[in-house]
Amino acid sequence: MSERLDTLKKARERMVEERDAHAKVLAAPFDRDKAERARAKFVETQGLIDAIDRAIAGEPAGSP
User: How far is residue 51's CA from residue 46's CA, in Å, rounded to a whole number?
Assistant: First the structure.
C-alpha cells in the first residue's frame, strides 16, 4: 500500500473517531448549546470523511 493511501486511511480513522465523539454528545440528554455545536461539528466531520473516501477511491490500486 502506498504511503499516501496509508495516510488517507489513518486520517479517515481519526475523523471517524471524532465524528463518534460528536454523536455521543447528540445522544446524551439534551443541552441546547452542546447539541448545536455537536451537530455542526458532526456534519462538518462527516463531510470531511466523505471527501477522504473520494480521495481513497481515486488512488490507483497499485500506486507506489
Answer: 9
N-terminal to C-terminal alpha carbon distance within the chain? 7
Higher-pLDDT residue of 32 and 61 is 32
C-alpha cell at 32: 441546547
Would you call 27 helix, strand, or coil by DSSP?
A: helix
CA distance 48 to 61: 22
Give 6's Cβ-side CA count (13 Å radius): 5
In the chain, where the domains are located: 3-58
